[in-house]
Amino acid sequence: MTVYSYKNIFINLLIIIFVLMSNVFAQEDVPNIYAPPQNLVPDVFEIKEEINDPLNLNNSDEVTVSELPNTNVGWIGYLSIEEGGLGLEMWKGTDSTFAKTLIDLLPVNAPSPAMRNLAKRLLLSDAFEPSKKEDKGLQAISPSGKPIISHDQDATFLSLRFSKLASLGAKDELIKLSNLVPSEDLTGNLAKEAIYARLLSGETDQVCNEVIELAKRTNESYWRKALIVCQLILGKRDSALLSLELLLAELDSEDKFSNLIYTLVDETNQIEFDKNSIYFKILIAVMPGQELDKHRLNLQPSGLSVVAQNSILPWKIRMLAAEKAVLAGSLSSIYLGELATQFKFEEEIFSRAASESKSMEGFKARALLLQAAALNTSFIERARFLRLLLDRADNDEIFQAYAAVIMPILITIKPRSDLIWFATFAARASIAGGNYILASEWLLVLGQTLDLDYEASGSLLRLLPLIAIAGQPLPKPFSAEQATDVWSGLLDNFSREDKEKRASRLLVLLSSMGIEPKEGAWKDIISSSNIFEIENIPATALRYQLRDAAKNKRIAEVVAISLVMLGSEGPSKSGLVALNAVVRALRNIGLEADARSIAIEAAISYVN
Q: Where are the domains of the chain?
């Protein structure tokens, strides 16, 4: 009996222990609803969020989730939206194939700082990579029936961006972008593209040291050609020829590269401009030789900047290249000003600089007038030389470049009534150079003499459309309606045809900026000879695609198509159909300042 009791007690204890253990295990599977929520986000993301929000503007306990930048090697950028970038989702809605086509078509030669600024921001923005278009059809298969896996081509975005930035002459930006690429990804074709892009943008010393080291470790013909290019850049002509002979001995035949090297080394007159050869574009900018001078000014903005800064080349070539580079936005206007002062004129020529400049070549006359303006201590004489300089620049279609160059001198001249004859030029140059405060001061001088000076009244009337396009307040007593009365402000010595072209352009730009012309403004322009116009009009598909992209806020697509439509001649030569579409599209996606800059460039040479 006693044994039985002990047995029952033991069994009961086992049952109790089993029940207790079951409850413990069950509790591990049931969440504790009273405990605070667990942080399931890794600590590294908490740190990143603190870095991205240094001001800690959100003091609530609410958890927010934000998208992180894409780290795919195909699209790496460093320009945030606060720094002028186009936003992480700038490619949203645009498939990668079309995005690549647009980037490939981006013009790099346009004489337009506004276009260059937009292009750089498009290429440098921190953004998510364009998405691949999903194929809803059948999958490609091999004859055996197995699916064919296509290789991801998105990494080509980066090499293409390297190339475009190099052609634009954006050397510093290119280096900064390439430094963001992880070293393990910067290999193969991407490494080659990066090296040649840096050479093209003028970064020769550091790159050539890298190439020399690479050539020691590899036998690839690509790097051996790069070595030959660097040897020529460094002035080692014999070493370059020896390296070329060794390469040809292995290749067993000559090619375009070897023909180019022999032609450049021999300095023959058989050299022809080769816009498709990266080697030609690199070497033509840095190698000496009179036979090459005739080709240097046909280079892209990057090459023009390199030529302008190449001290072994003739001053004339450097000046002409610098003027074009400043116009394209790839070179500082300060550098052009300093280069212009390097020419040593005879001292006595400055006493008759105005008359002497008339018989000189344009670039030399501009240098003389710039120096004369800077050296003269008389306000009136300084203004006179600047007016002559701007006249020469206007005639040679580089007004925008010299408007920036003269700004340090122009700001030393105090706007006053006895300089009324200079006020129009000063105001126009100030607007072109983006100095609206100075422009308003000169406009005020014009406005104060309206009742006394008929010429001043006409000058100010001609400037009103430009002031309105620039978004600046109109001087009293003028109204917005008068700013759109462009026909009344045109000079009488213009032909009827010239008046019609100028008035049409200004009215289109005003309208595209949201300033509707006064009633009857268009009617004044219509004549029997102005029924049809001949101009380059972008393809219908491109125009409609731009409109659709703007409507659906596909930001990068709008920017890229706009640049393609404006073309390599820039806003000043673009047709009215393209200008109207581009300005309106940019404003539609919120890029008001960029639209205005393009409109000003398109209008500046038509207001004089």
A: 2-43, 90-103+110-131+154-321
